[in-house]
Design goal:
It is a multi-pass membrane protein. The chain is mainly beta. The chain contains 4 helices and 42 strands. The longest helix has 11 residues. The radius of gyration is 26 Å and the shape is globular.
């Protein structure tokens, strides 16, 4: 059973410190000011932080949505490497690279998310790039560059953001081009031979045309080595770029065309084997970042992840109250991913894989801003395809290579509206809704070939077919889900410095088909296979209070929420016996609708400028997520029956307690004849015990604390910034994921993946 005892960190002290900052008052967990960590916009800006959480510009302290905003300047100042680092300072949020990947994002907010990034599985946390929904998580873990801000919205956002944002949404907002020529360069050097360079430039070509672009190169040696091949493990080798052009032919019309591309040529990320080899006695390696994995190629390719896309934004102001926006976008990505489950040089349990995704989307938004009524309405359409093929090469009593193909089409459209009515200067009401039609069409093929050399599609033309376990041609599996997701809210400005809000919202994620389906191994009936798994829904009631004191030098935000989660989609992999010999000889994907769950929690963020030089920020969150119904099929008296095992199941990637405390001290320090400000920023971030799956396992990570320290100097004219950044200074080894298949292959599988060790980097930024 999971322990809820806080270990290794005085959580009560950090909570007390945060409460002390609040002056004993409650505030809403919607965001805080950026006095350190990275958290929100600078407190020096009198708390005026503009976000677009409700698809229209609003002051963050007034918007009745739980959102934390991170400004691009502060992300740079804190040396934030990528989006996963933000989770340390966001309540009830987990962001990490998916197991065995470098750039696929696993995101959980308030207990809702998705771990397996396979075709047809769409995460419960939506990822957005400039209002463009990214249907797939591949290539979503990118280094932060050319960004104006990042917003993280917590709770169901289905009304404005769509069917798959039942946990929340993460929004990248890139910079708009400035009216003058702007050239910026950033260099970074660090341990593990880290070397990075980012060049950004923009210029006006005329009064109505501006162009700009960024090119970024991120490279680093591995934290460990592959002791068989000599290659790096946990290294980075990524190139990214972005181009944009902006047109304002009339004062009422704005057009933005943009394109971006990312290529990740990092080595395969292989796990740390936590058990001794069964047949050869291979010992457990002392360095958790080292590996003996031997599978390095997939489909004749080294590991490679590429993604690119283009978009067209058009904004037209009809009159001072009414405007219209069109967002058109297309994206594609491709991942070659060799996964060595056993992490040993023998061929025992290997999975070379290919993932391909493409999408096209179109959205129209109409925004009205009146004295009494403000709102957004629109229509949205997406046409997406997710395609993956992989071999499961498995030794054992029956050595075989199982070829699996999943080809999932998704077409969805929606109409939505959200309006706010200002009853008087203190009281306002909001009402919104979204109607979604979600259509899925799937083809799934699963074939077993003799031997350990793979299938024809994966590079072995001489493979001998033994049996076909599953064969559904494209279009044979179809389903359509329709749902209306409403939201109602109220906001009351109790005083000039305190805003209270209450809201109720429903979230919805469509059903689908598991692309690893094994009809033979799981004895799945054709009717059950064609039905697939059901949609899931969540209803969340939230109460919040935002407060400011002493001319916004102190801000506190608190929110409490209560969610009812139904038909929870639980994707997983299980060992199966396809030969009826009593021994597992393969594995299969099984996605079930667990039943019901209750999720309750509290989120507190606070920031204070104690003096002109010293500022402090803090965060504490607590969540109690429990299944009340989790039905599984078991034999009872020799007869299959549904059994409720809710008391034995947990919410994965959802630590019960999280906390962050950061202090920043600024001082005027001239350097090289230039006036400037030196800043010292230190933080401690705590995460409670984290379960990796819905059941307890040895891979579960006990509570841990990470310590960071940054020293930066910024010139008075903001042209130069130099920094020294230390992350995870305690060199803590903490698990972020893994695989457990003890009975598959001759060696069995128990491998773990870890977060980054201690890293130190020096950065230099120059604005020409």
């Amino acid at each position: 059973m999971r322990s809820t005892t806080v270990r290794h960190f005085p959580l009560h002290r950090i909570a007390a410190a945060v409460l002390a900052l609040s002056g004993g008052a409650l505030g809403s967990a919607q965001a805080q000011t950026e006095a350190g960590a990275p958290t929100a916009q600078p407190i020096q800006d009198a708390g005026v932080v503009t976000v677009s959480a409700r698809r229209r510009p609003e002051n963050l302290q007034d918007v009745p949505v739980s959102v934390t905003a991170f400004g691009g300047d502060q992300l740079s100042k804190q040396g934030t490497p990528d989006i996963t680092a933000l989770a340390l300072s966001i309540p009830n949020t987990t962001l990490k690279a998916s197991r065995a990947t470098n750039s696929t994002l696993t995101a959980f907010i308030r207990g809702v998310g998705q771990q397996d990034p396979l075709a047809g599985f769409e995460a419960g946390v939506g990822i957005y790039l400039d209002d463009i929904y990214l249907a797939r998580p591949q290539a979503a873990v990118t280094d932060i560059y050319d960004v104006e801000r990042i917003e993280v919205l917590r709770g169901p956002q289905g009304t404005l953001y769509g069917r798959n944002t039942i946990g929340g949404a993460v929004k990248y907002v890139t910079r708009k081009l400035g009216p003058r020529t702007d050239v910026r360069a950033r260099l970074a050097l660090g341990n593990y031979s880290q070397r990075e360079a980012v060049l950004t430039a923009s210029t006006p070509l005329s009064d109505t045309v501006r162009v700009g672009g960024s090119i970024a190169r991120f490279k680093r040696d591995g934290y460990g080595r592959n002791l068989v091949t000599g290659a790096h493990n946990y290294d980075k080798d990524m190139t990214a770029g972005r181009l944009s052009a902006e047109f304002t032919p009339t004062p009422e019309l704005f057009i933005r065309l943009s394109g971006d591309a990312t290529e990740d040529d990092s080595s395969p990320r292989n796990g740390h084997r936590m058990t001794v080899g069964r047949t050869g006695g291979a010992p457990i390696l002392s360095n958790v970042y080292d590996t003996r994995a031997s599978l390095t190629r997939a489909l004749g390719h080294e590991q490679e992840v590429s993604a690119h896309g283009w978009s067209a934004l058009l904004e037209y102001t009809i009159n001072p109250q009414l405007s219209v926006k069109s967002v058109t976008a297309s994206r594609r990505d491709k991942s070659y991913a060799p996964i060595d489950f056993d992490s040993l040089p023998v061929v025992d349990f290997e999975v070379p894989a290919l993932y391909k995704n493409k999408q096209f989307s179109q959205e129209f938004q109409f925004t009205y801003t009146g004295d009494k009524v403000q709102g957004v309405a629109g229509v949205y359409y997406i046409d997406a395809n997710a395609y993956n093929i992989f071999d499961t090469i498995l030794a054992g009593a029956f050595p075989s290579s199982t070829y699996t193909l999943g080809d999932i089409d998704t077409k969805a459209w929606a109409v939505f509206a959200d309006a706010n009515y200002k009853y008087n200067e203190a009281l306002s009401f909001s009402l919104g809704g979204r109607y979604t039609v979600d259509q899925r069409e799937a083809g799934i093929l699963r074939q077993i070939y003799l031997g350990l050399n793979g299938s024809p599609a994966m590079g072995n033309p001489n493979a001998v077919l033994f049996r076909t376990d599953t064969d559904f041609t494209r279009g044979e599996l179809e389903r359509e889900d329709k749902k209306f997701t409403p939201k109602v809210g109220m906001a009351w400005k109790a005083s000039a410095s305190q805003n209270v809000y209450a809201s109720w919202a429903r979230g919805f994620k469509g059903g689908g088909f598991d692309p690893r389906m094994n009809v033979v191994g799981t004895r799945l009936s054709p009717a059950s296979a064609r039905a697939g798994y059901l949609p899931e829904t969540i209803d969340t009631l939230e109460l919040g209070l935002k407060s400011s004191y002493n001319n916004n030098r102190i801000l506190t935000n608190i929110a409490v929420f209560d969610s009812k989660y139904k038909d929870v989609q639980i994707p997983g992999s299980v060992e199966v016996d396809t030969n009826d010999d009593g021994r597992p000889d393969s594995f299969a994907g099984v996605t079930t609708n667990a039943g019901k769950a209750k999720i309750r929690g509290v989120e507190l963020e606070a920031s204070a400028r104690l003096t002109d030089a010293l500022s402090v920020t803090g965060m504490y969150s607590h969540i109690n997520a429990e299944y009340s119904q989790f039905l599984t099929s078991q034999l009872v008296g020799g007869v299959p029956a549904l059994v409720n095992v809710a008391s034995e199941r947990y919410f994965q990637n959802t630590p019960k307690n999280s906390a962050n405390l950061r202090a920043t001290y600024d001082m005027q320090v001239p350097l090289l004849g230039r006036a400037g400000t030196a800043s010292i920023s230190a933080s401690a971030a705590y995460k409670d015990e984290t379960t990796q799956f819905e059941y307890a396992s040895v891979l579960d990570q006990p509570g841990y604390t990470l310590y960071d320290l940054s020293l930066t100097w910024t010139s008075a004219d903001s042209k130069i910034r130099a920094g020294l950044h230390g992350k995870n200074l305690g060199d803590k080894r903490y698990r972020t994921g893994g695989y457990v298949f003890p009975n598959l292959g001759r060696e069995g599988v128990l491998t773990a993946f870890y977060g980054a060790p201690r890293t130190v980097s020096a950065t230099l930024e120059y604005r020409f």
